[in-house]
Specification:
Largest interface: B-C, 32 and 32 residues
Helix content of chain A: 10-25%
Oligomer: heterotetramer
Number of domains of chain A: 1
Strand content of chain A: 25-35%
Structural class of chain B: alpha+beta
Radius of gyration of chain A: 12 Å
Distance between the termini of chain B: 28 Å
Number of helices of chain B: 3
Order of helices and strands of chain A: EHEHEEE
Shape of chain A: globular
């Protein structure tokens, strides 16, 4: 099975109740497909995406072996 | 240089030590600009007891390295130092330090401002405040 | 606070000490911006051996006090510290320190920049460089 | 005799060969009158003026008891 590693941070991690999981790459083309599959009943939230630790757009392609992260707007500094 | 750490740090000692250790800088810089961000004890109408800074380990360092390289390319600066904490912080604790050395002040100010602005708007950190009325995630301005 | 002195100073120790002593600042400021101007060992094609800073005692302090008050009025800042040397300096010596404390970074950066710009263009100091090829008065940019 | 205290700094002090002197206020109305009397054969130089330790224009009135200073453009900081 081809897997994508998915990670969550801050408010999104809290609301999903988990900080990471593995998702089957079958039927997944882009970040948005991953988000649809994992976000379930989360409702509309402001979410940012990083693919392999770089910011990416929701329509950016993802595939097996990729690390994809979803998180709210950042508040460092 | 970039450092991301959970240990508290003294920004003034860090700048002094970094300058001392980079002996080759001495006499070459005419301008040093430093920004320090600290945890305030009061925020959006609530007393702050402590703050927990979550971060995306790995991506944070990558991002800070990239932004630091960009600053070195874009402005004529000699060196830059960025230190950022994560984990649990107490009010008055320094959160972030940005220091820039250059021949002239205009470059030093611009690069320092660029680094802290990029860090605030793009580096993957999230602040969670413990207030008298419970916990909350900080929302960007 | 304003200080004009002939003794050398360590800007990082000064900022740390001032912050420590102003205990009431702790937890109230989220942003500290510091500018340090230092003597470079090379200027306009010549090696610098030492520099003598002449100043107009009395007028200098008046001017710095005035500019400092203006910064406090114009921006929402909590405190400012300015230290400026006069007399004989060696390469790498700090010449001037400007530190500003405020709740937010934008005010801190703007006030710090204002203070050093006003100081450079208006405070009555004159630099005389001792170079390998003799002495010369520094001419403004 | 009514006197005005005149001070010189940096390059102007060096070229005049003195750092201060007292000038008779007789016939003096403004800073420019003082400068004409003291600058002698100095030739044209860029000179700034302070009256009682505040920047002033060359046509600013001066009188007995005032401290007036002439100096080149400043280079502090």
């Amino acid at each position: 099975m081809n897997l994508i590693q998915v990670r969550y941070f801050a408010g999104i991690r809290e609301r999903l109740g988990r900080d990471q999981e593995l998702v089957d790459a079958e039927g997944i083309r882009c970040a948005s497909d991953v988000w649809s599959r994992v976000s379930g009943a989360l409702g509309p939230v402001r979410v940012l995406v990083a693919i392999n630790q770089e910011y990416a757009a929701m329509d950016h392609p993802v595939g097996p072996g990729d690390e994809i992260a979803f998180f709210p707007p950042v508040t460092g500094g | 240089m970039i450092r991301v750490q959970s240990d508290p740090f003294d920004p003034w000692q860090e700048v002094a030590a970094y300058q001392q250790q980079s002996g080759s800088l001495a006499g070459r810089f005419g301008a040093t600009t430093v920004f320090v961000g600290s945890l305030r004890d009061f925020s959006q109408g609530r007393q702050i007891r402590e703050m927990t800074l979550e971060h995306y380990a790995g991506m944070t360092e990558k991002h800070l390295e990239k932004v630091s390289r960009e600053a070195m390319t874009r402005w004529d600066i000699l060196d830059a130092l960025v230190i950022h904490r994560y984990g649990r912080l107490k009010p008055a604790d320094p959160i972030v330090l940005v220091a820039v050395w250059s021949a002239h002040r205009d470059e030093a100010f611009q690069a320092c401002r660029y680094l802290i602005d990029e860090l605030k708007t793009r580096a993957p950190f999230w602040k969670n405040e413990a207030t008298d009325a419970g916990q909350r995630w900080v929302v960007p301005d």
